[in-house]
User: Fold signal-recognition-particle GTPase from Candidatus Profftella armatura.
Amino acid sequence: MFKNLTERLSDIIKKMRREVRLTKDNTENMFREIRISLLEADVSLPVIKEFISNIRKKSIGKEILYSLTPGQSLVNLVQYELSHIMGANLDKKYFKLNLLPPFPSVILVVGLQGSGKTTSIGKLSKYLQKKKKKILTVSVDIYRPAAINQLKIVTLESGSDFFPSINTNNSVDIVNSALNYAKINNYDVLIIDTPGQVGIDKKMINEINLIYKIAQPVETLLIVDCMLGQDSLNHAKIFNNMLTLTGIILTKLDGDARGGAALSIQYIIKKPIKFIGISEKIYGLEKFDPIRMTNRILGMGDILSLINSAKENINKISSKKIESKNKEIFDLNDFKAQLIQMKKMGGLNVLIEKLPYYIQKKTNKHDIDKTEKQIKRIEGIINSMTLYERKKPDSIKAKRKKRIAAGAGVNVQEINQMLIQFKQMQNIMQKIKGNSIMKIIRNIKKYIS
Assistant:
């Protein structure tokens, strides 16, 4: 996420911190480097001008010039202004979903075809379900039957309910039927997937506006594909002028090395970013926080989001089962449970992206991807074992290894390697108090400071 921008800004931040005294020359050099970094990241020009203007004005103030650590004070100023560009000055309520009665609360999701609109609805359903909400989804994208089927798949994957679009070409009838069904069956939230096309045309906007009048949504969320750069900002401006938007979901941030759209969009259309898509997985949706995002962009990491993600995604019952063993026997069921918990947090790539940049630099993406594949294979191996073998790993000898290898589609050497890795994990878990991944994450600052 924002790899190129983070690399450049991290280097600039290091230089700033080393400055014992700020002069006109060294500050202007820093501002020029920041400007070039933002331009290369495809940040909107008005945003860059406003940002540089603000830090230039404030950097000549007494609190910066006469500070005991002027370089660090300038870093703090850059951090402050960058977070405000993304909405840190707004009240926190603007970043929350408005899910007030009467129920069902209706969320209208709009965006272009291919922006990740339908997938984001599945992720949003999963997110709200974790908040103990009863969710129903419906698609009115009557021109694309495949989109309706895709919504059904991601909805069922999220554990929510899907309302089948009735056999009609009338989106109004579909919305009315879904609303009535949601009311009768006491759903908390109804999420409507609107028509999506490759480009924005008047017919699509008119249809969405008609759906809006009938559904009376409490939230109208625009899906913005970060990979499109400046084009995504242009599309957002058009949607914003034609519809009553309440917020934005940024998608494909995990594949966006530049970050221009994320930095610019709130400033350009004056609507809050409510969520960000951080992976393709059903759990890959996070609440947006401008201050934490700024820290990630500047290479400072986002440990707080990591902890919150752990709290939200780790199954408390599963954690308690592992903790209750209290340093006794950590078996292969526990090993698999820890791997699943990590997957729910987005996998290794997402976890590492939230660490400070100096730690990220020590990791190799190829190695991480290889490890992710190995984790999947380990799951497959454990799934091929009997319950007895999972509880008693020492019972797995030559004959059992051959049978497990055949069932998992791997060779015996991989079984041996997995068992060695398990033994290593077993030793680590005996040394860590409570045998809980949550406790490791709570203490993560100790390991990176």
User: Anything to note?
Assistant: The two ends are 23 Å apart (CA to CA). Residues 165 and 174 are 6 Å apart (CA to CA). The beta strands are 105-110, 135-139, 161-163, 189-193, 219-225, 247-251, 273-277, 285-287. The first helix runs from residue 3 to 18.
